[in-house]
Amino acid sequence: MNNNLKKDFPIFKTKIKGNPLIYFDNAATTQKPQQVIDAIVNFYSKNYATVHRGIYSFAEYATTLYENSRKKVADFINADLSEIVFTQGATDGINIIALSWAENNIQEGDEIIVTDLEHHSNLIPWQELAKRKNALLLSIPITNNGELDLPMFEDFLNKRTKLVAVCHVSNVLGTHNNIELITQKAHKVGAKVLIDAAQSIAHEKIDVKKINCDFLVFSGHKMLGPTGIGVLYINKKIHKEIHPFKFGGGMVFNSSVEKSTFKEMPYMLEAGTASIEQVIALDAAINYIQKNINFDDLKKHEAQLCAKLINGLQSLPGVKILGPVEQLKKNGHIVSFAVDKIHPHDIAAYLDEFGICVRAGHHCAQPLHQKLGIDSSIRISFYAYNTIEEVEFFINLMKKLLL
Ligand SMILES: Cc1ncc(COP(=O)(O)O)c(C=O)c1O
User: Fold this and answer.
1) What is the fold, at CATH topology level, of the domain defined by 3-24+294-402?
2) What residues flank ligand 1, with Cβ below 6 Å?
3) Whole-prediction pTM value?
4) Which of 41, 87, 123 is nearest to 221 (CA)?
């Protein structure tokens, strides 16, 4: 990895209680490079106007910047322009699928499959939909190793299965799911597939054509971009099954007091004034990733950090790594663990004294923690700017605490 990456992120000049900031909470949200900050400041100070409405050239330029971002996103994940809907984030994207597609395409007696690895965002919209429709919600269990029980998944599949909603990478265990295989198997029974790529989009090449999924969601703020912006990919093969559910300005083709007609995809799902500066800054974030982060190098770098972290933690008494250890050492960026008789919050507070930010809690995955038989865990999640020295510093502090 390029060791100079940190210099692009002004936040790393910040001291936490007199210590350099060591940021290990990238699965929650990533830090922002100057280029993304500049994109927002420049838009506000030089180009700010609304999009898709103004006829004056200034507003047309804002529309160009906004639509250029859609093109950037489409190219980034190998989609077509009409397949990219701007949302507020991954949660919003999943809820939009529930309301614009599932509401009309899932009926009483139909089945929805999720997994025990899901973030609340990819579970509760389906619980609620199943309740509304009298449909059945099934969850693929995990093995002792923290990987999906795929034979059980195959047992669940049948002609009543209408949707399989699965995360690409677990935000707790770091498990990397074989989404191509899952998609292929689900399609065989005619089910649609939703991929929650919130934890993979910043770490590897996502190619929606290769995955062949029907829906895919992610958030801008987990990939160096701002909050308040996300992307929902909807495969154009199913655009005819999508119905608008949020109505207002921007999505109308023609309107009279008696009736209205609506624009085609993606605009039919983008009612109201858009998150313009966030969309433009997402373009800058993707630009930054494309120019500065090679995904093969990133994978090696993050795997090294995970291996160092796991080996260090495993040498300590009372520490239990929760995820698929061997997989994480090869292809991980998230590692969660628990320590005997010490609450995760106490460990996070101890590390905070040294400028280290880690996540402690259930990470919006309570059902998974229940299955693991614990209330909460400590999560370390890496990105390109983290270093081996930071992991060593962390392990030394854990040694002081536990030895
Ligand atoms: C796997 C996964 N899915 C969905 C989400 C929700 O993302 P957001 O809160 O940006 O909508 C998260 C956030 O942590 C996540 O980790």
Assistant:
1) Aspartate Aminotransferase, domain 1 (3.90.1150)
2) 27, 89-91, 119, 121-122, 167, 171, 196, 198-199, 219, 364
3) 0.98
4) 87
